[in-house]
Design a protein that fits this description.
Blueprint (H helix, E strand, L loop, with lengths): L11 E5 L5 H11 L5 E5 L5 H5 L2 E4 L8 H11 L2 E6 L5 H6 L1 H6 L3 E2 L4 H8 L1 H10 L7 E2 L2 H9 L7 E5 L14 H16 L4 H4 L7 E5 L4 E9 L5 E13 L2 E8 L2 H14 L4 E9 L2 E8 L6 H5 L5 H9 L16 E3 L15
Parallel strand pairs: 1-2, 1-4, 2-3, 4-5
Antiparallel strand pairs: 6-8, 7-8, 9-10, 9-12, 10-11, 11-14, 12-13
Helix pairs in contact: 6-7
Amino acid sequence: MASASSPAVPGNVLLTCAGRRNYLVRYFREALAGRGLVIAADASENAAALFEADRALVVPPVGHPDYIDVLVHVCVRHGVRLLVPLNDLELPLLSRERGRLLGVGAIPVVSAPDAVDLCFDKRRTAEHLAANGIATALTFVALGDAGAAIERGELRFPVVVKPRWGTASLGIEFPHDRRELELAYELVGRRVERSIIAGASASDPGCSVLVQECLQGQEYGLDVVNDLLGRHVVTFVKWKHAMRAGETDRAETVDHPELRALGERIAALVGHIGNLDCDVFMTSAGPVVLEMNPRFGGGYPFSHVAGANLPAALLAWARGEEPDPAWLRVQPGIISAKCDRLVVKPTLRIPR
């Protein structure tokens, strides 16, 4: 790992809230091919991705008032050309401060504020998709409305109870009857109040918990890729074989024209920048969208090992170059699975 005091290399990449995304450190380093460094930043000096980055930085947590100021300073000091955020909670902040980052020469791979809010607010996601003719899970904010839908037979147990502004499958419950629904609704609300998403939920007090239809069918993951101007380029489709801790654990790349067309519709509707991680269930009535997250999701590695190279494409766009078409293709039928490994913290002190 290079010292933070070594000369900055123009074209460096900064991964924020890097956490355990060591694979992205590797993907971007390979894509840079010696034309820049991968800098990983996190609030914890023991975050695994910091151990393997070319430079590792400890920064304040996302909710700290100095978070953006510190990132701007990092971009200037370390010659950052591309800033890639990896956590839902920082997207609204970076989106609002996009101009400051561009002003110091760093291109943030973050969407416009309206697109970020549309995806982060799961109630708004459901309403906006439905209003534009894209099927989504039945969604209720008020417990009474969900109960009435159950009485009418529109909503059936088990149902899903989850935070309206959620991340990493935090606080999700699956009640199987009315009493469990009441208890789960109250429990999730209490958990939200003392969680990392409490700040986002404060924007609409009393409406921070959702009751949703529990979708039945095969689950797919989409990487809906737009360029840095928000224009759709390609959609990669993966059949999810297994989930673990809210992330895709085993998956297979597939050629699915209907879901690729759905990805193109979503891209035009959202107008996001870079990757949009989208969860879709193929039900008896057709595809139904569950959630959208405008960032690299936990399902991207399954596209990468099948031939995609979105890090290389992003770097090309940032340089004003056209990406190699091969980077925007995947081979169908590639089955892959995640596994854990240990990385040892270097003896080199990580600067704060």
